[in-house]
Amino acid sequence: MATVLKSFERWKEFLSDRVQQAHQAGMSDETIAKIAAQVGDFLADKIDPENKEERILKELWDVADEQEQKVLARCMVKLVNNG
């Protein structure tokens, strides 16, 4: 996972692959967004950002309340679904 975090593009590809796998497994967008929010909590708490994009996301995550974090997670899922 650490090498995935070194490049934001690699991170988006990784997340896109996982979202696609979740869709193929029959998960709804809402379920995927909930899981993305849980991953966001883990990353914000345990992983030091490796690049400026991840630093910005962490800073946004840290100032957001729980509802805003869910929106950020949905936005990340949407970003990789459309990219």
Description:
It comes from Paenibacillus hodogayensis. This is DUF3243 domain-containing protein. It holds the Pfam family DUF3243. The protein is mostly helical and 83 residues long. It has a domain at 34-83. Helix content is 82%, strand content 0%. The chain has five helices and no strands. The protein is globular, with a radius of gyration of 12 Å. The model has no long low-confidence stretch (mean pLDDT 85).
The termini sit apart by: 21 Å
- Please count the beta strands (DSSP E, at least 2 residues each): 0
Q: H/E series, N to C?
A: HHHHH
Helix content: over 70%
Report the sheet with the most strands, covering strand number, pairing sense and barrel closure.
none
Number of helices: 5
In percent, how much strand structure appears in the residues? under 5%
**Low-confidence parts, pLDDT < 50 over ≥5 residues?**
none
Indicate the radius of gyration in whole angstroms.
Answer: 12 Å
Question: Globular, elongated, flat, extended or rod-shaped: what is the shape?
Answer: globular
What's the overall average pLDDT, rounded?
85
Structural class: mainly alpha
